[in-house]
Amino acid sequence: MTPLPRDPKRRAAPEKLLPLSPRDFLVLFSLASSGEQHGYGIVKAVERESDGTVSLDPANLYRALKRLIRDGLVREAERRAAPDAGYERRRYYAITDFGRKVVALEAARLARLADAARAGQLIPLKGDIP
Asked: What Å distances lie between residue 24 and 38, 77, 107, 116, 127, CA to CA?
């Protein structure tokens, strides 16, 4: 288990980190659902999961990863060769147990918002989506 950050305010309950930005949610979701990934894999997963509405350039991705690591949501995993990179070693990232709690809470929050939007007839009911 990865230790939590030293900053006491960052060790607060996971709820204190909500709401997450869409970018941070998608990065954490990608790591939670697909396991350890290198930066390019995260970029592709975020684009796929957002249907292309969220794209990450490398600078924004690594800035976000640095912040997520600082907050104890992500950890750096072992460097290793990526299947698509030949002999080049890539840095991999993994979600922490704390990060998994935060992203699960955010997913539940977003589900409640979607349910409220359905109830208000702003979006179709689940069965009515084409």
From this structure: 16, 18, 12, 23, 29
Tell which CATH architecture fits domain 21-124: Orthogonal Bundle (1.10)
What is the distance between the alpha carbons of residues 27 and 37, in angstroms, rounded to a whole number?
Answer: 10
**Stated pTM of the model:** 0.82
Q: Quick one: DSSP state of residue 35?
A: -
Considering only CA atoms, give the Rg of the chain.
16
- Quote the CA–CA distance of 46 and 53 in Å, as a whole number: 9
Structure confidence at residue 112 (pLDDT): 97
27 — pLDDT class (breaks 50, 70, 90): very high
Residue 102 CA to residue 32 CA, distance in Å, equals 11
